[in-house]
Design goal:
Length: 512
C-alpha cells in the first residue's frame, strides 16, 4: 500500500502532517523489514492497514502515526527512546499505551469479562490508545483465517467479549458491527451457518429491491424540495440478527429491521420533515416509530427509526439522522475527540457535493451501500488527555441523558475505577486489581497468602523496587519469595488492603 492511501484521508492537512505520517510509514517499514504475517505477506501490510482504518475514521496525523508504529516496541529492535527522539513524547505515549494493552488478555473464563473490559479501558489511559487498539484488532480479525486454528477461537472470543463490548459502550457502531460479524463465525459456527442461511432465504434479492425503493424515496424527497440528503441501505448484520432471533424463538418474520434504509440530512428539522414525507409515501407500521433524537440511547445514539411497508411488499426500517449524528453513530467517542476543536464544515449553505467525498467503507460483507458517504473535516489536536479528563468528558456525555442503570459503563469506570482502583499485571499477564496506593506487598497477598508471607523482594517492570513502592496502573509486578522471609511490623505502615493487613498481623503475632 502506498502511504498516499493514508494521507489522502487527512483533511485540512498541512505539509507537516503529511510529512509526519510519511516518516512514520517509512520508519515502520524499515523496523519490520523482513518480517511476515501468518498469511506470508510483509508485516508492513498490517501496519499500513491499521493506519488506513484510523485515517478513514477521521483521526489526526499523530494517532495515525502511532497506529503505523504500534508494533515497533513490542516486535522489533526499536526502543521507546528511538520513538521519542524521532517522533516526540506524545506519539511515544500512544505507542507505549498500545504495547501495554497487549498484555490484557482473555483467558477463556467469562467470569472476568467485566473487569477485563474495565481494565482494557483503564490501561489505555488515553482514548486514542483504545481507538488504535480497536483498529489493530479489526485488521487482525479481517485476516484471522491465516492464523493457526488453535489460536483463532481465543482471539475471536476475546474480540467478542472485550473489544466488541468496549466499542459498543463507546458508541463506535461501525467498528463494533464489523468486529462482531467477523467473530461470530468463529465463536458460534453452527449458529452462524443457521442465521446466514435463514437470512439468505429471506432476503435473497433484497439488494435489488432496496435499490429500487431507494430511487423512489430519493425522487420523493427531491420533489418535496429536500435537496441535501444522502440515502443508503443495508441488510442486517448476522450477529445482531442472531441476538434478535434468540429473543424471538427463531421466527425471522418477527424481525422488522432485516432491511434498513438510512436517510442522512443536514438539520434536526429536516429529520422530522423527512419523516413526514416518508410516512406520506409509505405506510408506517403502528407502534414502530422511535424518536432517539428527542430521547437518545444511553450510549449517545441519536436517530429517528420507523418501519414501513412499500407497495412492492418490502418491509424495512428507516433511520433518519443528521450528518453529525451519523458521524457520531459510526465513530462514537472517536468523533468527539475529533469534533472538539473543529466543527463540521459545510453544514449551512454550501452544496453537499462540495464537501461530501466518499469514505471507502470499512465494511465489506454487510455494508451500507452508499450513494455517497459524508467525509467530515476533522482534525485532532495534540491533546495530552490523561485519565481524568477524557473520562470526565465521556462521563459528561451521559449526565444529561436518560440512562439505564445497567448500561452505565462509563459512569462506573469514572467512579469506581479511576478514583479508587489500579490494575497491575503478573509477569504472565494476569490481572490484579488493587486500591490506589497499593504496594508490592498488597499485590503479593492478593495473589496468595503464602506468597505474601514469604515476600523477600519485588520487581516492577523488571526493575528491583522497595516493598513500600506505590504501584501504578499497568505495572507488571513480580514477587520474589524466600522460605525464610517473614512479614515485619514495618509492612503495616504502608499496606493498603485489609487482606494484607490481616495476614501480616497474624504472622507477627498481633492477629486475633
Ligand atoms: Mn498489531
Amino acid at each position: 500500500m502506498d502511504v498516499k492511501e493514508i494521507t489522502k484521508h487527512l483533511t485540512n492537512r498541512s505539509e507537516e502532517d503529511i510529512k509526519l505520517v510519511e516518516e512514520a510509514f517509512t520508519f515502520a517499514e524499515k523496523a519490520h523489514a523482513g518480517m511476515t504475517r501468518y498469511s506470508g505477506e510483509p508485516y508492513m501490510n498490517h501496519l499500513a492497514a491499521v493506519g488506513k482504518i484510523l485515517a478513514e475514521m477521521g483521526m489526526g496525523p499523530r494517532t495515525i502515526s502511532a497506529g503505523l508504529l504500534h508494533d515497533t516496541i513490542e516486535d522489533t529492535e526499536v526502543t521507546p527512546e528511538d520513538i521519542k527522539n524521532k517522533f516526540g513524547e506524545e506519539i511515544l505515549f500512544l505507542v507505549d499505551g498500545v504495547t501495554k494493552l497487549s498484555s490484557v488478555r482473555y483467558y477463556g473464563s467469562d467470569r472476568h469479562n467485566e473487569s477485563l473490559r474495565k481494565l482494557f479501558v483503564a490501561t489505555s489511559q488515553d482514548i486514542r490508545v483504545l481507538i488504535i487498539k480497536l483498529a489493530d484488532r479489526l485488521h487482525n480479525m479481517q485476516t484471522l483465517q491465516y492464523v493457526p486454528a488453535e489460536k483463532q477461537l481465543r482471539i475471536a472470543r476475546e474480540t467478542l467479549e472485550i473489544y466488541v463490548a468496549v466499542a459498543h459502550r463507546l458508541g463506535m457502531g461501525k467498528i463494533r458491527k464489523e468486529l462482531e460479524d467477523l467473530s461470530f463465525a468463529y465463536v458460534y459456527p453452527e449458529e452462524y451457518k443457521r442465521v446466514k442461511q435463514l437470512l439468505e432465504s429471506k432476503t435473497g434479492k433484497s439488494n435489488e429491491l432496496l435499490e429500487k425503493e431507494r430511487k423512489i424515496l430519493q425522487k420523493r424527497l427531491f420533489d418535496a424540495k429536500l435537496l441535501d440528503f444522502n440515502t443508503s441501505y443495508r441488510v442486517k448484520g448476522l450477529f445482531s440478527l442472531y441476538h434478535k432471533l434468540k429473543r424471538k424463538d427463531w421466527d425471522i418474520d418477527g424481525v422488522y429491521d432485516l432491511l434498513a434504509m438510512r436517510v442522512v440530512v443536514n438539520t434536526v428539522e429536516d429529520c422530522y420533515r423527512a419523516l413526514g414525507i416518508i410516512h406520506e409515501l409509505w405506510r408506517p407500521l403502528p407502534g414502530r416509530m422511535k424518536d432517539y433524537i428527542a430521547f437518545p440511547k444511553p450510549n449517545g445514539y441519536k436517530s429517528i427509526h420507523t418501519t414501513v411497508t412499500t407497495p412492492n411488499g418490502v418491509i424495512m426500517e428507516i433511520q433518519i439522522r443528521t450528518r453529525k449524528m451519523h458521524h457520531e453513530a459510526e465513530f462514537g467517542v472517536a468523533s468527539h475527540i475529533t469534533y472538539k476543536d473543529h466543527t463540521v464544515s459545510g453544514n449551512t449553505s454550501s452544496h453537499s457535493a462540495k464537501f461530501m467525498s466518499l469514505i471507502p467503507s470499512l465494511f465489506r460483507p454487510f455494508t451500507w451501500k452508499n450513494g455517497a458517504e459524508d467525509h467530515f473535516q476533522t482534525r485532532t489536536t495534540p491533546h495530552q488527555d490523561k485519565i481524568p479528563r477524557w473520562i470526565s468528558q465521556i462521563g459528561n456525555m451521559y449526565t444529561n441523558k436518560e440512562k439505564s442503570s445497567t448500561d452505565d459503563f462509563i459512569e462506573d469506570i469514572k467512579k469506581d475505577f479511576f478514583s479508587n482502583r489500579i490494575f497491575v499485571f503478573t509477569p504472565k499477564g494476569d490481572v490484579v486489581d488493587l486500591p490506589v496506593g497499593a504496594t508490592p506487598v498488597d499485590f503479593a497477598y492478593a495473589i496468595h497468602s503464602e506468597i505474601g508471607d514469604h515476600t523477600a523482594g519485588a520487581k516492577v517492570n523488571k526493575k528491583l523496587v522497595q516493598l513500600e513502592t506505590e504501584l501504578r496502573n499497568g505495572d507488571i509486578v513480580e514477587i520474589e519469595t524466600k522460605k525464610t522471609a517473614k512479614p515485619t511490623k514495618k509492612w503495616l505502615n504502608f499496606v493498603k488492603t485489609s487482606m494484607a493487613r490481616k495476614h501480616i498481623k497474624t504472622a507477627i503475632g498481633e492477629g486475633d
